[in-house]
Amino acid sequence: MQVRGFLLLLALVxxxxxxxxxxxxxxxxxxxxxxxxDWRWGPCVPNSKDxxxxxxxxxxxxxxxKLKCKIPCNWKKKFGADCKYKFESWGGCSAQxxxxxxxxxxxxxxxxxxxxxxxxxxxxxxxxxxxxxxxx
Length: 136
Fold this sequence. Notes:
Layout: H1 2-32, E1 40-41, E2 45-46, E3 52-60, E4 63-71, E5 83-87, E6 99-109, E7 118-124
Antiparallel strand pairs: 1-3, 2-3, 3-4, 5-6, 6-7
């Protein structure tokens, strides 16, 4: 009987502690938040070269802010790091041009970026002939 009461008390203490921790996070967000709702964000500008860690500047009325951001070093420069696309699989190799093509449909534009709805990418055809090895 006493063990059950102790476990119940312990559960209530843990519940109260997690509830209090959640309140602190919400209050902190409200302090740091801005009343302005119409933020305009610029592109992510890397600190050095053309990829890696950097920052993005935003303005809203009289306020301005900088956010940390990161441009992956394997990003498609043509599309911009803030445009996310869903690509279909690669098409067949064109004998005339020696390249294969695929298209991507815009999935998400981050920070109000100006993105094309559909993009096309090409890459050279592989000169290697893939052989399937069969296990015996």
